[in-house]
Amino acid sequence: MKIGYGGDYNPEQWLPEVWKQDFRLFDEAHIDTLTVGVFTWGLTQPGPDVYDFTVLDRIVDRAAAEGRRICLATGTGAHPAWLAKQHPEVTRTDFEGRKHRYGQRHNSCPSSPVFRRLSTEMARRLAQRYAGNPAVIAWHVGNEYGGACYCDLCAAGFREWLRLRYGSLSSLNAAWYTTFWSHTFTDWDQIEPPSALTEHWRGPDHTAFQGITLDYLRFMSDAMLANYRDEKSAIRESDPRTPVTTNFMGLYRPIDYHRWAPYLDFASWDNYPPDDRSPARMALAHDLMRGLKDGQPFWLMEQTPSVTACRDVNPLKRPGVMRLWSWQAVAHGADAVLFFQMRAGRGASEKYHGAVIGHAGRADTRVFREVAALGAELSALGGITLGARTPARVALLFDWDSWWALEISDGPSRLVRYLDVVTAYHRALWTLGADLDVIAVTAPLDGYDVVVAPALHMIKGDLAERLSAVAFRGGSVITTFLSGRVDENDNAFLTDVPGPLGELLGVRVDEWDAREPVYVNRVRVGDATFQSRLLFELVLPQGAEVVGRYEEDWYAGTAALTRNDFGAGHGWYVGAGLDCAGLTWVIRQVLERHGLLGPYPDLGEVETTVRVTPDGSRLLFILNHGSSPVDLPAVPAGDALLPGDPLALEPYGVRIIHMIT
Amino acid sequence: MKIGYGGDYNPEQWLPEVWKQDFRLFDEAHIDTLTVGVFTWGLTQPGPDVYDFTVLDRIVDRAAAEGRRICLATGTGAHPAWLAKQHPEVTRTDFEGRKHRYGQRHNSCPSSPVFRRLSTEMARRLAQRYAGNPAVIAWHVGNEYGGACYCDLCAAGFREWLRLRYGSLSSLNAAWYTTFWSHTFTDWDQIEPPSALTEHWRGPDHTAFQGITLDYLRFMSDAMLANYRDEKSAIRESDPRTPVTTNFMGLYRPIDYHRWAPYLDFASWDNYPPDDRSPARMALAHDLMRGLKDGQPFWLMEQTPSVTACRDVNPLKRPGVMRLWSWQAVAHGADAVLFFQMRAGRGASEKYHGAVIGHAGRADTRVFREVAALGAELSALGGITLGARTPARVALLFDWDSWWALEISDGPSRLVRYLDVVTAYHRALWTLGADLDVIAVTAPLDGYDVVVAPALHMIKGDLAERLSAVAFRGGSVITTFLSGRVDENDNAFLTDVPGPLGELLGVRVDEWDAREPVYVNRVRVGDATFQSRLLFELVLPQGAEVVGRYEEDWYAGTAALTRNDFGAGHGWYVGAGLDCAGLTWVIRQVLERHGLLGPYPDLGEVETTVRVTPDGSRLLFILNHGSSPVDLPAVPAGDALLPGDPLALEPYGVRIIHMIT
Amino acid sequence: MKIGYGGDYNPEQWLPEVWKQDFRLFDEAHIDTLTVGVFTWGLTQPGPDVYDFTVLDRIVDRAAAEGRRICLATGTGAHPAWLAKQHPEVTRTDFEGRKHRYGQRHNSCPSSPVFRRLSTEMARRLAQRYAGNPAVIAWHVGNEYGGACYCDLCAAGFREWLRLRYGSLSSLNAAWYTTFWSHTFTDWDQIEPPSALTEHWRGPDHTAFQGITLDYLRFMSDAMLANYRDEKSAIRESDPRTPVTTNFMGLYRPIDYHRWAPYLDFASWDNYPPDDRSPARMALAHDLMRGLKDGQPFWLMEQTPSVTACRDVNPLKRPGVMRLWSWQAVAHGADAVLFFQMRAGRGASEKYHGAVIGHAGRADTRVFREVAALGAELSALGGITLGARTPARVALLFDWDSWWALEISDGPSRLVRYLDVVTAYHRALWTLGADLDVIAVTAPLDGYDVVVAPALHMIKGDLAERLSAVAFRGGSVITTFLSGRVDENDNAFLTDVPGPLGELLGVRVDEWDAREPVYVNRVRVGDATFQSRLLFELVLPQGAEVVGRYEEDWYAGTAALTRNDFGAGHGWYVGAGLDCAGLTWVIRQVLERHGLLGPYPDLGEVETTVRVTPDGSRLLFILNHGSSPVDLPAVPAGDALLPGDPLALEPYGVRIIHMIT
């Protein structure tokens, strides 16, 4: 066994001559894993009562015969044209209230009984047919679940979901605070999906009733989860063991992946970073995906070998970058490295998307050569990394509910975006080299010395107590402005801000200023001064020590940054939108206290992670994300699993040290 | 009697313990006036045939028992959920043609018979119930009327409105100039509301037929006025005397407040300036509101004590600013100073909106302390300002028809915005300290020495004659580019520009240039040079004296600014988009001629106004809008009604001098 | 005979007194040609079964009596209100799926049987009535055809169009590459118009299926062409000879004018450049329009004498510019110079559009005086230019299919716009003074020494062979990045890029980088260095000589610009988004080789064209587009047909030299 290598493959688009060419090139590139059938519904069910697996049989048989492993998709990510024509209910109604007709993909209403029945039946038949095939090593349900629907079927589903959640209209009215603006609901049927035609203006983030919108986000995530679960159950009827997954999208707002994770046998995701300056962001996404299943390895289900097509501007991955990012995935827990796509399509909207094999079918392109070289390298490495875990003592909390609640709020500032805050804190941790887990607010915190919870807007359940326990036993908890504001229904706590976190943090916040991005208030911390922007909470210490104070404006001298002694540990509160240097200063204090700085905290473009293999080996991954060579001061003793001088990394260089401990 | 102090209060959202806490805090802050019931329709009519005033009774009784004065709202600004479900006709159809379902507020179709019947019935029943209560000192009908509806009921209402206006289709066709683009209407039913589905593209300002769009704006304003009048009439059935108002929004385009004003017993408005650098703009809005009822005092119905919530960025009012802006309202004619809101809501879209009492219910916040201090100050002042009038000899014309006509025109420049022009001229008057009235074009002009009419695009009735009369008897009239262009149907005058104003102004304009904002043409006036932007009319004097000429481009040397001797006075024409310095130069000439400069024309951030009380006392208000202290050269002899050195104002300082005359 | 002079005239909007005034002013300005009836459908057919030509008779009779020539419009560019009310099918459904109601103009669904029947009937009746009138010298069908409709009638029309094009669903599925995303169509009725409700997101350029969108663009252009052809056929029933046209809009994307051209008897177009710095762009548009009919003279059907109204900012044409641009039209092949509009409308959306006669009806305005002066000049010139041709040896290929295909593609860059590329290459040709034809990709290439084909994305038919033949016989062919990518169905060629052009160009392209506009990669060419932006193809020479190489980034040293010897000529490939200087360098090499530089290649603002009259005379037009005087080094011997020193051009000056050859 080794790291799976390959990707999305759609031979149904091609003639047999091309298949033959493909497999020759796959051998040349050490391709051993193929994801097939992702958009084959129209092929496998060409009409209402007709199923035809001829072509898919041929694909699976051929791949199996060549020794390839197959990740078999149910193909339900796009419904066939005949289905939309025969049952208009299967298409979605969008946020603007417009009923769509047939087109695109990811186009099915999750509440449609017809869609649910037929997609499940497709999964059932596929499992019946291919369950016994040893080449099939995983099931891939649907594709990149997401978007939303606002049709009447979803309205009915929403009401049913609400009935289960609240039991009574009086509970619902209380949760949604409907006395405001005369909104008291006296019948379930009065409730409408929150859209441009009801509670919203300007767009999906501007709502008159946060509670309604928040619940609809939760409902829609659950409704699609039900679609996934339908198909998984149907697969399990014939195939009790082969793992089932679906491809997630990393930092994707519409779906609460934490609520989905229990139903996946392993996580997998598609890595399309917004630009080529995103190594920290990719690391965050990898860690979030790994955290979905308690640290269990995941698959990198898709990445482009070269270019994307869907952006306004699609830059080319420079030499070495595809390899570097592939190893980064492994460094963060990937057991498979897969591409979209194996061969470039001729037509439609992804014909210019990068592929291992281009339109001309050449093996002598730069891209193919790099893919083949990485294939050889992965083969040489073998299976040592498989099943390895990350021994993190730092946790970063990530919470879809806080994300949603924060960004659909009116006030204090639309410019404060959840991901911006989270990625800023993560970047500081990443720069300083801490091994970290990204976890849900419901995850156990016992194993961590440091818990960072940026913009923890919503406090649910016993979270405040568990955070306090971390500090009490000597750990450090860091949180920020706009934390501890609302309960699980997005109703403000009727206490001082930061609500249930007040005791842990030893502060109170009565007021806050919000400003345009051009406005800067400096924060003095000891001898240093940092900039802060966007949001400025006026922190009133209630026992906490003042670490930083504002220097500008009428609240100059007011606390902006505090640290509270709590038990044997600390509760930090960052009340201002500190800049990168400021955040790095705070995080460094905390990591140093716990001895958790990485080996190269001052080499900003060098990333390291540690993985511990099932047999207890410790692997140190060293990745140079810079375009310049880097000399390392030292590396731990051990065997180098990749070629190259361990102390001198070339641009985009990668090393793996099998540490002697 | 004294200035009313308090604001919007929604105890129906809270439990009795909280009520108790509220009233203790109200006492502490000298709160004597509460606006209640603004969004209680769902509470008072929980179903089609069910009325329930239990909670409202309790609120009113409690407030009355505590000696508070009540501004009682009819609560019809948002309809209940059951109503929208039972009668879908009550919800609006938007400009895009989308029928809305239940949600938000200000959501009722003004033409819906069901809405009209039930909202009127609600007002009727409230009046029947509370008319005799001496604590009820005013009725507050609906809330912030505005928006628009484009449904079929409104289409029918529009056709009826047109029939009354035009009598015949041939008159209508002539008014709308329908021969253009084959638009002749041969049946009333062919007429559609002008929307994105009919005459418009890009948005509400881009129309193929200005006449249709203009009339729809007038109709929609009238339709909502009818809603207001319905409710007022129903109140008057039981309560013949208590004054009735609704809260206006200042410089708000969709509603022609001049057409509404006769039906209000006093004006009131909600002051939410776009930013904290808007003292002149607020002054303009105050004066506009005061001018609605011929100078009669108005109420400041809402302002935030601290922050708004609906903006992208919601900055915090700094210490002293809430007090300063409250006194500014009084300086311009307010008899009440009220907040939105007394207690912060827990949930929904205004939970982060500032409030006198925050979520924690504290009295020791900065905001509460400032509110309480102002309460004490207002109590100490007593009733001296009540009923006082502003003795202005300068009038600024403000005209919704010109606003609409200018901004829905194709050409010459979409960048020339009515409010920009008006606020620029007002700012010059404000900076120079002139006491002024902002009045409708139909208001008598006899009492004024100076009439400023920026962008007076449309000339209706005898306006040109009345303006000429001002100049003839020795006054000064100032108008600008794009004035005198169209008649009341937005049809161009078939004469030289500026149409009926030509004789008064002694100029003719055949052509004009429009340019992007980066382009500047300098205008030389004597030894000074000013910049002009956006629009450049080539002014051909026909008797007028040239005061300023363009310096740039092929029309260098052409007149840009003229003054015409007319009778004993002057008609000024400003053909170019002059900068602030240029406008101030022009306005200063005029004010100096009439001896109407304020006491501190060179102290840009010091505002003054004079009010004359019913007993003839003259009160001079002095307000320092700057963040620095200011020394005044002198102040009139008199008693200082607020503490502090009259000659040395602290930042945001306020003085009131009871002048000895 | 002489150049027609006049324009759009709508006396139906006016009373007889005004008509009289108009005709007196027309005489004063040498106006001899009037376009009448452009929006008269509501006038000529006031009801379902009522036709009334009384007013139109009067207009035609009066004009004829005064000796004016008439371009008679069918008036079907806007349908009457009664028609939309009685037959809602005639209004369009927009891209967002919204059915429109009555409003605007250009508002008819092209597939509506009712619209087709009644518009055709109108043309038939007009022709029956006015065919014999010698004053009627041309028919003007509809007006500025364009926009699109997405209604069910168009859906049905689209399916019929597809059936004719593809014959079978299997052909259609192959052409559209429907295996991708499960899109296989199994019944024609499953096919929907590609809109915001089906295949599109973000807007008309973002589609899941390029093939569907491309075919809908073709269908919609054909559907409107059918409308035009309907009317033309109806005219031909009574009038077999008078030429028929419609007014095009130059560089207008929605309509493939090359497919329309065979059905026009002469081309005509409306020239409203985006700003006053567009002489090259106007030249391109003139040449494109002339190229539609193989070089046959066209009419300038509309231009404004002064200002437009529909822009956000509508600048004024400075003195001399209207004359200059009128002569530019003639220099490029116009046989008529017409204005929109003769008299300014009083109301609606064009009341501020410039006109020969303004609202006041004056003859002493600058604009009228310039119009009259040009009228005198045209009269003095007489008929010498009529029917003249342009003797170009340079061809610029212009292709609506490539335009559409390029701009609806996902990847590599949305920022690369077809017109930007074409206008950049054209500008280089224009600056260097080459006489050129702008032609369709189907036009014969035999007569050209140089063929420039920027962004020739789609290669159809025998185009590659014909381009090769140009080079083979010694010519030069220039093409660029993103050429040779797709076949006529927008499917990628399964060969190396640039597909069928590879042999001619001697290069291969495996990969390309796309970047934001701020990124610059320099390209070294000999001793010079040019900037390139947006798109960077990595050109691998396969026989071609490398002329320029990238200087930056990891592909520094890679070829960016190549020239291939092919037969006796050259195939140039420009792989980078070169700046203006770079393009000019390339074009200059090529023009110099063929001796085709214009007389003043270094005088950037001086434009020249040559026209050869039917009797073989050669006329050299010299136009100074600059605001400064220019001295010419020399002019060819000949007679000056316009006044002024031939060697010294005033700002905006024009000369015509009747060359002695």
From TrEMBL, chains A, B, C:
A Pfam family annotated for this UniProt entry: Glyco_hydro_42C
Residue span(s) of domain Glycoside hydrolase family 42 N-terminal: 8-380
Occurrences of domain Beta-galactosidase C-terminal (ranges): 606-657
UniProt entry keywords in alphabetical sequence: Glycosidase, Hydrolase, Metal-binding, Zinc
Family: Belongs to the glycosyl hydrolase 42 family.
A biological-process GO annotation: galactose metabolic process
Record domain Beta-galactosidase trimerisation: where: 392-596
Entries under SUPFAM superfamilies matching the protein: (Trans)glycosidases, Class I glutamine amidotransferase-like
Residues of the active site: 144 (proton donor), 302 (nucleophile)
A cellular component term, taken from the record's GO annotations: beta-galactosidase complex
UniProt-recorded name of the protein: Beta-galactosidase
Positions with a binding annotation for substrate: 105, 143
Enzyme Commission code: 3.2.1.23
InterPro entries cross-referenced by the UniProt entry: Beta_galactosidase_C, Beta_galactosidase_Trimer, Class_I_gatase-like, GH, Glyco_hydro_42, Glyco_hydro_42_N, Glyco_hydro_b
